[in-house]
C-alpha cells in the first residue's frame, strides 16, 4: 500500500510506499510530514517508523481476502497487471475495468481558503515487486498549493508521465485558467484516454471531478448540505 498527503498553505507533504501492515497509510504519510525532515519513506523503513510512532498495524494476512486472491489468480492466468477493483470474471478483455479504480483520494478547503489533498492505494494486482505508482508521488497523484488541491486516480505510469496534479495547478497559476478549465485540459490532453481521473477543489470552493475513463466513483459535499455522488458521466 502507498499514500501521500499535502498541505497547500505551507506545501508541506508526506508520502509512504511499500506498506504491508499499516491500517491507515495516509495517517502514516501525515506523520512523515509532521514528525520528520523528509517527505518520503518506503518499505521496511516506513514500517519501522510506523511501529515507532504507535501507528495501528495488523498482520499482512488481514489485508488478504478471497476476492483479492481471485483477482490475483485471474491476473496471473492472463499474464497481466490489472486495476485493483476489476471484477474477477473469466475471459475479461484487457481494456475492461477502466471505470473501477482502486485508489481513494480526498481534497478539502476550509472557510479561510486553506487547501489539502490526500491519496491512498493498493496499486495494481499482479504488479512487479517494488513497483511504485503515482499515488505517493507529489505532483503526480497528489498536489496542493494556495490555488487548488488535486487527487488523481488511474494508470499510475501515465499519471506520473503527465505530472497530472501539478499540471492542473500550473495551468491555474501561469495561464490563469479556472480549476475546471485546467483539470479538463490535463485529463483531456495530457494523458491517454482511458487512463485517468481526478477530484479537485479551488481556494474559492470550485469543485471539479473530470475523468477520461468509462466512469469514476466520486462524491463531494459542502457545509451548507449540498452533496453529489456519481459513477458515470453526468451528460
Automatic annotation (TrEMBL):
EC number: 3.4.19.5
Matching Pfam families: Asparaginase_2
Sites where the protein binds substrate: 131-134, 153-156
Gene Ontology terms for molecular function: asparaginase activity; beta-aspartyl-peptidase activity
Marked site positions, Cleavage: 102-103
Active site as annotated: 103 (nucleophile)
Keywords annotated in UniProt: Autocatalytic cleavage, Hydrolase, Protease
Signal peptide: none
Known catalytic reactions: Cleavage of a beta-linked Asp residue from the N-terminus of a polypeptide
One example of a Gene Ontology biological process annotation: proteolysis
Highest taxon of the lineage: Eukaryota
Subunit structure: Heterotetramer of two alpha and two beta chains arranged as a dimer of alpha/beta heterodimers.
Protein's name according to its UniProt entry: beta-aspartyl-peptidase
Biological source species: Arabidopsis suecica (Swedish thale-cress)
Amino acid at each position: 500500500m502507498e499514500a501521500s498527503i499535502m498541505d497547500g498553505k505551507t506545501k508541506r507533504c508526506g508520502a509512504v510506499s511499500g506498506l504491508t501492515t499499516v491500517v491507515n497509510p495516509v495517517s502514516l504519510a501525515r506523520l512523515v510530514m509532521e514528525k520528520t525532515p523528509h517527505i518520503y519513506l518506503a518499505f521496511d523503513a516506513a514500517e519501522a517508523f510506523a511501529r515507532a510512532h504507535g501507528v495501528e498495524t495488523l498482520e499482512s494476512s488481514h489485508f488478504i481476502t478471497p476476492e483479492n486472491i481471485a483477482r490475483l489468480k485471474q491476473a496471473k492466468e492472463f499474464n497481466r497487471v490489472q486495476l485493483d477493483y476489476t471484477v474477477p470474471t473469466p475471459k475479461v478483455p484487457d481494456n475492461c475495468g477502466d471505470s473501477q479504480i482502486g485508489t481513494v483520494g480526498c481534497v478539502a478547503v476550509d472557510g479561510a481558503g486553506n487547501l489539502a489533498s490526500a491519496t491512498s492505494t493498493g496499486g495494481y494486482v499482479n504488479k512487479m515487486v517494488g513497483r511504485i505508482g503515482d499515488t505517493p508521488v507529489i505532483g503526480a497523484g497528489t498536489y496542493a498549493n494556495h490555488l487548488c488541491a488535486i487527487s488523481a486516480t488511474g494508470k499510475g505510469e501515465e499519471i506520473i508521465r503527465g505530472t497530472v496534479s501539478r499540471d492542473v495547478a500550473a495551468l491555474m497559476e501561469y495561464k490563469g485558467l479556472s480549476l475546471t478549465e485546467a483539470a479538463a485540459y490535463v485529463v483531456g490532453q495530457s494523458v491517454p484516454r482511458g487512463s485517468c481521473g481526478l477530484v479537485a477543489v479551488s481556494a474559492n470552493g470550485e469543485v471539479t471531478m473530470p475523468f477520461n475513463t468509462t466512469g469514476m466513483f466520486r462524491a463531494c459535499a459542502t457545509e451548507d448540505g449540498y452533496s453529489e455522488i456519481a459513477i458515470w458521466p453526468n451528460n
